[in-house]
# Entry
Amino acid sequence: MPHILTRKHKDIEITNNVIDGVKFNYIAHSTYEDKICVSCEGKNFFLTKLTKEDNHLIKIDSSTRVTPIKIVKQALNAYAKICGAEVLFSNASNDNNRLEPKKEYLKEITYFVDEFSTTKDICVEVGFGSGRHMLYQAEQNPDTIYIGLEIHTPSIEQMLKQVKIKDIKNVYAVNYDARLFLEFLQSNSVSQVFVHFPVPWDKKPHRRVMSDEFIEECMRVLKVDGSLELRTDSPNYFEYNEELLTHFPSYKSIIVKNQDLAISSKYEDRWKKQGKDIWDVTIYSKDESSDIIINKDFSFDIKNNISQENLENNLPQKPVVKDGYFVHMEHLYVINNNKFLLHLTMGSFNKPLAKYVVIENSQANYFQSNPIPTSANQDAHKLINELLNKAIV
# Structure
């Protein structure tokens, strides 16, 4: 990532300081690093300033990283100019004006929270890998929307290249955990959910995508007679799912061994040549589900002014763990006598979220944007609000 190394220098002057299109808003101090709040091209983020012997290292804060990367470089170069210190090293040159590739079929999770709407059939594939199965389905069914969930970035890039080559228009890719994503789909809106060859996680079964909770959420989003289809070559994973089916006796389910599909991956072809067994486990939705309302309210209700002493002495030092979510108050930064920056981790154990909260007197708000409104993040937010109020003594 781009960064600069300078001789040690004093803090820059913040008041109304704008240079080369970069506005410097404030500096939040701590014992081991500073966070410099900047605005550039309509985006707010932090630069991190670390002391390295007689030098200062300035880089992008990982929790507030923005794109495209040229914005980060622009901010670093503006800081190098305004700090007046000798620059010892920089890899923040903006000489490369290469355009960012267009990725119209790669969507942020916020798209599905705030914008996504369709009257077409929807199918979801969890962990699409190279994308062979999903793209085949999309080509065969051009009037169906296929949403692919994948956390492996190279697989996403490979799939999107094929989308462009094949000129496929009905696929969306999302880099997000499937166990949380389904919360943002309407009830009774999906025809099929595919979970093909998921990682077995034999030594860490809690990381498996298939669970009682995941099946229940699939049954909510699926239309009546819609299906959740697991395909696996792992005997352990198959037996695990056989056990899960006993928790849903009222749902129709089918188990098939070694059936041939119209399309298969290169790994599946290899496994078949090796004589490995492959199981298909399909469970069908039977009832219409009630609609859900996504709570997007992340406002704070703090009863009184909070001081630095309150925060340092009364906030929990260790993670607060609840059923299905947690909050960890990581670090406190001081902006001025009445304004503070709190770095914390919150939400689901499957998809923990790092956020900053700006606190000034009795007001608080999340920096950059509110958390994604999953149920775990909502529960964690309520806990954060409670902990901040308990800090007032």
Summary: The mean pLDDT is 92. Residues 308-390 form one domain. The chain is about 25% helix and 35% strand. Residues 375-390 form the longest helix (16 residues).
